[in-house]
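Protocol step 4 of 6: structure prediction from sequence.
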Amino acid sequence: MKKDSLVTTNFDKDEFKALKHSVLLRVYYADVDKMGIVYNGNYLRYFEIGRTELMRHFGIPYSLVEEQGYLLPLIEANIKWKGSARYDDTIEIETSFYPDFFNPKVRFEYVIKTSDKIIAYGYTIHTFVRCEDFRPVRTPKFFIDKIEQIITQK
């Protein structure tokens, strides 16, 4: 059992790989630039879609985070491009979350594919803050409890 000043858990991250979820999305005309490819800034929006759907899939929608009195703002993002998507392509956004309850930062990793070809990958890092004052806090107990419940069901 690992201990933290605020949290006690039976979770061993070395025994568990990740929570993963994929979502398919159609590239709209509004997503592309004059060259006919997805504008680079839209990849962060795609990351957000992937992250939102992963959390929803595992029963932790952002609305629940907010109801508990927290927000999860972005503090770092990284994207590497290997190709491009075009108007009307179907893209797959694969999102992974590797729980680390002893780090107040939450990291999500993404792979974006079209026709099974990786066109972009990267990560975002977030931190929990309290809604009322935006002060950073450790990972809240409700979040840890929910992740532990998911892990023990796997």
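Step 5 (inspection) to follow. The chain has one domain: 15-153.
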